[in-house]
Prior knowledge:
32% of the residues lie in helices and 15% in strands. The radius of gyration is 35 Å and the shape is globular. Residues 819-826 and 942-966 have low confidence and may be disordered.
Amino acid sequence: MKKDVVCLILSYPPLNSENNGTRRDWIRDVLRITQKAREALYRQKKVNVPELSSEMDKLLSRQIHDIKVHVPSDILVNMCNGLSPGYQAPPKAMLDRCTDDFMIRQILQYIQIPEIQRIVISEVNDKNFLVRLKNLSPIRRMFCRVIRVDVRFCSTVKDIEDRIIEQLGFSNSDRGEAEQLLRSQNFLILLDDFHPWIENLHHLGNGWWNSNNTQKIVLASFQFYPGVPMDLEIRRNHHLLSWELFFRNVGEVLHSSTIQKLAVHVLRQCSGHLRATVLMARALKGVKNVRIWQHALRVLGFQPTLLHVQDRIMINALIFILGHLGSAANECIKYCAFYLEMEGTDKVDLLERWMKEDLIGTLGKGEQIVQHLVDAHLLESFANGESVQMQNEIRKELVKFYKVEMNPTLLVELDGRGLTEAPENEAWEEANEMSLMNNKFSKLPDNPNCPKLRVLFLQGNHRLRVISSSFFQCMPILQILHLSETRIKFLPPSFFKLVQLRKFFLRSCELFMELPTEIGELCHLEVLDLEGTEIINLPAAVGKLTNLTRLKLSFCAQTSHCRKDNHSNTIIPQNVISNLLQLKQLSIDVNPEDERWNAALKYIVKEVCCLKRLLFLKLHLPEVLLLNDLWDVASSLYQSCMRFRFIVGRHQKRIISRLSHESAIRFEEQETCLKYLNGEGIPTGIKVVLQHATALFLDRHLTVTSLSEFGIENMKNLKFCVLSECDEIQTILDADNDRNGVFPSLAYLELHYMKNLRSIWKGQSSQMPSLSNLKVLALHTCPKLDTIFTFSLLIELNSLEELVVEDCPEINSIVTQEVLAEGVGPPQEWYLPKLKKLSLHYLPKLASISGGLAIAPELEWLSFYDCPNLKILHLEEVSTCKLKVITGEADWWNELKWYESELFQPPNLDDIFVPIERYTDLRTQLVEINDQLQAQKQKKKTLSPVLVPSIEFEAGTSSKQKQVAA
């Protein structure tokens, strides 16, 4: 009963819009406990009932704490005890529409939660309620089959199921075919007038469920019978909650039948919003003037299209309330909204501050205003009336209201709404900022009048192809314009009249290819960002933009079509870059096959060296000699704190194709990056730049046999390193000749397609720590790699958190057998003490994880795939203390044996095992499993520890015990 009451109240605004993800997780936890209790009741399954009860109480208490801010405790207690509202209600016909609306809202909210399969609605007094529910468009969109069945004469579960099958058009002899049809579809079954005393209702439809589909059963009854075994029970009388709140706060004025009718209309306009309901009731308390009630309805009915429904309700309620407060009280509550301490303050102190601000003339007048604001529910008193405070929810809404009043910008925040039509012209006139990004606009107003508009965000409107020629005509003070990720091909003539424009973003516009020369007329421009928008060339007029501090460009390769159209053969004209002396950021992306770039590079490098304020530089340099020229002229820049992205060497278009998307993003996030491609030897320029680089991507180097050849002393600042297709490399680190520590800053090392790689580390431990900060090591497709961790390397990796080994066919253990024989150094209780994730995939010879060596006491993730020789796991090498998930093929898991010793006994890990499907992409499956694990972790952070159940995965296997190898 209590959990159903809580779920009902959580369906009301504003609670239904607060932390929706957390609320759904909470509901899932409640249903999980309910299911366990039900299994114990109906299946005689042994459970710890006091423990379940305690866990449920803790879950409920957290939500009840939030609910009590809106619903008084005595009302909540009465509802939990199954009592009907205790205040006089108008004739039921008046409230029928309200309560039905509120019930439908709750159904539509909870029917989307997969774990809620069976819902019972009690005290229904409208025979057409289920008909109305069936015909709702959201229901029709969600379910491909919706059927309504009258079950008033059914006395068993089988009777009900037979009626449903009959409604589907099948006979009892075709029951199997009917059940197969139901399992294959998204269905909603509405059962009208059922008898709740039917036994085993929890078995209803057990053979029809398919977790891949959305399938629900809703049962409606004209009576209330507690204890019906459903996932959710909705009592119609409990949806009189908002009426009870209104009646309690508005007073005896509701004894008038005329006022009662108006009050019901007020409730409907409030949409059951708990806060707005109380505020309006307080504002209308004792008001017998019908015209004031009618005025309240008109104000609540305002429909500013630029606000969410809940924002509209609260803003309209505040407009009415503040309009009846008086000017002095209005100024006082505005002061409290912005300046009253969160924990409240002494009332006398507040009055003195009001007097200091000339908001009141006397303390007596201030006392009256305070009492008036308390009566209006805008302030609340505590400490025997000596102190006052403002509820956070009230403060937030008041601040929002006053910001709307002072700054119309808030009225045009329409980002991410999925709108297909832009606001009408009237919405543009008073705004100074328009946030219209991430919608579905295909058209904008022809010539909106925007005399105050300073900021316009239109990015992410992927359907926007054309902007009318006069669109920007009446935007005289526009300063920031964002048109990124649209499909526009050109800029309209009116754009070049934006003489006050400071920042222009046109990123990732794939159809935009030519920047007009008129761009040079925008003399105040400070940011010109065309990253990802591949233009043909840069007009010389950009050199006039001498106020530019940020310039980001991307160029496409010149085609024969471009040459026929008489486009310039020069990608960037001379003296353009050198004119932009204020530049702090310069980024130039080019097509590596564009010969124009090679022709222009020499003078571009010279001009870049003139930019003394540069803090960020991104360039592609096909020849190492150009890097030397850049460094020789501007070495003082790079020895400072300037960030850079250098791509050195000739390469094909997709230079990071071997990297996963996640790794590519990590690489680009590093402060100073060097990509060296198709290189030979070890050029001096590369060594010098490496001294300042934090990230290195070495791709297809032709001659180097070890990364150490670049000079270990040159890579002390390296934090991120990726090597790909370097066929001559045999070992990554050769530490034989180094006693000062190797890669002390390196945190991420990833290898791809290393044809001749045999080992990661060669040599003995240095006197100083090596690889002491390495957190991630990923090895992909190294066909000759047979040694990952030697003892010398193993003892260094005290920070390693993740290890990935994939497609390395010669690996039989991540720790070589020589480890146990070396006997070098003092023995450790555990190695790899911080390792949390271990992924071993496509390793046909893998027979042991670490050869019995104790590793990874903090292990949380253990993933196997296609490791056919791994048949026995040692508990010494797999710490299960903190293990949260194991993945692998189901048949491999079922055949796996555990090695039992005197010290370690094999646990049952079936609950955390997640099977991998053979014919579904492995990476996709692992990402989904990891996302689920991270979501559980996030829930653990947001909830109190006592409320967090152990992590469980839906995709578990049977509870078959593992075999034990003696």
